[in-house]
């Protein structure tokens, strides 16, 4: 049986002050009275500040002045499941009601960075039509608190009018949505255009659980190619308005162990297939086996070549690695899979992905149920420290999520309102022990440099 996976995401840490808005180079620019710069649609009356130009910092000075990106995420999945039922985690966990409290909890933890997915199915109401009424006050409060969001444009679901991920037209529409978002909130710099592309395709196109609810290689590949295309088109739109934008691609890092000698070939195939989304996204050549698989499953040679021609976008990217105890699997003789636990763990799996793509890394999702959460937090952190010590430029860590979730024990396929106790806070917004431990970890490493080496964060 396919595995069940929880969800989580990111945040980060840099100095901020008052009602500040980041400049093009990522610095905070405010007036002497603390009011934000012009260009902010929430404060259009504010005149532009006077900026005194100084010597540009060297790359080494930039690295030295940056700090590690501690983060938390607010769970925002919104797929459509059986019975055409929309699963809206922001609604199910009370965020629409308690959003102001949730943002304050982020700051109470000592965090500046929040992974946040505005509900696209509520905002994007039709071609060129957007309802920002619900989001405007949330974004204004983030600005006031000095929170820097990492915005998910698509998190497992599309607006009803776009249908599902098999629709070839949705990528260009979501790119338009990204452009509209940047026009309205030009101070946002960090984005995840499409969250966990591999999981989106696996659960929707291969397992038949979400959205199109199909079970075929053709549906899986079609989903992936549309998600990657949407990501690339959205990046182009964002970079047109914000050339210094950074894209943190949160992806599930997987591994399949063979349950017997007979299953070694199948496990080998699946361990190549797990890289497809990031291979296309980051311009990495696929193997001959995977190329044939793509061509036999609905991708054309021309489409593959188009993805290869977008490889310049990788210079704006950080590879987000999501790792849970459910990410490793054993494939049995009958072809079914069971959970393997953390046989290799975050260190080994992340090293495999880094060695393939050679991009800066952020641990963008992890959690465990409350009884195991503190031990898991420190275990993941120790794995991360070892990766840094061994030369992997890992720049951030995220606990996902801020509050408990619902129905992830069934991968959102059975909507029963079952609470998954994986948050730093429960649904009454009371802290769990892991919240105190995470705050202690953040305080202990408050001056942690963003990288233990001079490996450049980005090449653009």
Automatic annotation (TrEMBL):
Gene Ontology biological process terms, A to Z: carbohydrate metabolic process
Gene3D superfamilies named among the record's database cross-references: Glycosidases (3.20.20.80)
Broad class of enzyme this protein falls into: oxidoreductase
Alphabetized Pfam families for the sequence: Glyco_hydro_1
Gene Ontology molecular function: dTDP-4-dehydrorhamnose reductase activity; hydrolase activity, hydrolyzing O-glycosyl compounds
Signal peptide: none
Annotated spans, Disordered: 1-25
Taxonomy, superkingdom: Bacteria
Key words, A-Z: Oxidoreductase
Catalytic activity, EC: 1.1.1.133
Descriptive protein name: GH1
Species of provenance: uncultured Phycisphaerae bacterium
């Amino acid at each position: 049986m396919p595995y069940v996976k929880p969800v989580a995401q990111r945040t980060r840490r840099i100095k901020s002050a008052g009602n500040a808005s980041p400049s093009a180079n990522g610095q905070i620019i405010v007036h002497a009275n603390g009011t934000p710069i012009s260009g902010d649609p929430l404060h259009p009356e504010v005149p532009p500040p006077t900026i005194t130009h100084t010597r540009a910092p060297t790359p080494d000075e930039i690295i030295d002045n940056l700090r590690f990106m501690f983060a938390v995420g607010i769970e925002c999945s919104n797929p459509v499941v059986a019975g055409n039922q929309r699963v809206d985690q922001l609604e199910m966990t009370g965020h629409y009601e308690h959003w102001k409290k949730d943002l304050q909890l982020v700051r109470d933890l000592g965090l500046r960075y929040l992974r946040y997915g505005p509900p696209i199915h509520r905002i994007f109401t039709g071609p060129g039509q957007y309802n920002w009424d619900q989001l405007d006050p949330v974004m204004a409060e983030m600005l006031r608190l000095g929170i820097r969001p990492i915005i998910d444009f698509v998190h497992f679901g599309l607006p009803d009018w776009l249908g599902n991920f098999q629709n070839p037209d949705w990528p260009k529409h979501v790119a338009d949505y990204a452009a509209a978002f940047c026009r309205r909130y030009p101070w946002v710099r960090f984005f995840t255009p499409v969250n966990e592309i591999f999981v989106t395709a696996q659960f929707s196109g291969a397992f038949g659980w979400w959205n199109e609810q199909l079970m075929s290689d053709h549906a899986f590949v079609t989903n992936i190619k549309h998600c990657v295309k949407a990501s690339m088109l959205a990046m182009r739109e964002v970079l047109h308005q914000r050339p210094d934008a950074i894209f943190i691609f949160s992806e599930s890092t997987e591994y399949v162990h063979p349950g017997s000698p007979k299953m070694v070939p199948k496990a080998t195939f699946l361990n190549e297939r797990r890289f497809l989304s990031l291979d296309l996204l980051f311009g990495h050549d696929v193997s001959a086996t995977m190329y044939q698989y793509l061509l036999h499953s609905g991708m054309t040679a021309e489409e593959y070549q188009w993805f290869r021609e977008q490889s310049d976008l990788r210079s704006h990217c950080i590879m987000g690695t999501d790792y849970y105890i459910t990410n490793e699997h054993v494939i049995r003789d009958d072809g079914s899979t069971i959970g393997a636990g953390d046989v290799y763990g975050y260190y080994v799996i992340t090293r495999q992905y880094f060695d393939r793509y050679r991009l800066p890394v952020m641990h963008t999702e992890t959690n465990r149920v409350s009884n195991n959460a503190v031990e898991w937090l420190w275990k993941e952190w120790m794995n991360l420290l070892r990766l840094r010590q061994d030369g992997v430029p890992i720049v951030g860590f995220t606990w996902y999520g801020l509050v408990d979730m619902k129905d992830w024990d069934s991968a959102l396929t059975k909507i029963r309102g079952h609470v998954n106790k994986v948050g730093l806070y429960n649904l009454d917004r009371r802290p769990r022990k892991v919240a105190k431990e995470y705050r202690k970890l953040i305080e202990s490493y408050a001056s942690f440099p963003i990288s233990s080496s001079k490996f450049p964060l980005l090449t653009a």
